[in-house]
Amino acid sequence: MPSPPVLIEIKSIGPHSATISWSEGFHGGFDQTVYYEMSSDNMYTTWTPVRMDTIGISETISIRNTTVNKLVEETIYYIRLYSTNSLGRSEMTNISTFTTTGIALLIYIV
Q: What one-character-per-residue DSSP string does 23-88 give?
């Protein structure tokens, strides 16, 4: 069974997007596919899974970045990741939380 992704960081948070930085976990000698699930429900009842990347066993990129778009400004999001391959599905990572920013307004004084 693969291990879940590691070194997860949420960065470049804006009003409508954020970037997930992560590294793949142990793959067990098989290609793996990494997913994230996101929720804006603090009761964790609704999760939406999204495929991020398929990683071949010969790839050597250690840190990967995935940008999440179409987010709502000033909203709290909860995110967790997992991996799958022919051996099964990994456990979920711990839940990470981030809040999108508001849209900055420019005021011109004449």
A: E----TTS-EEEEEEEE--TT----EEEEEEEE-TT-----EEEEE-SPPTT-EEEEEEEEEETTE
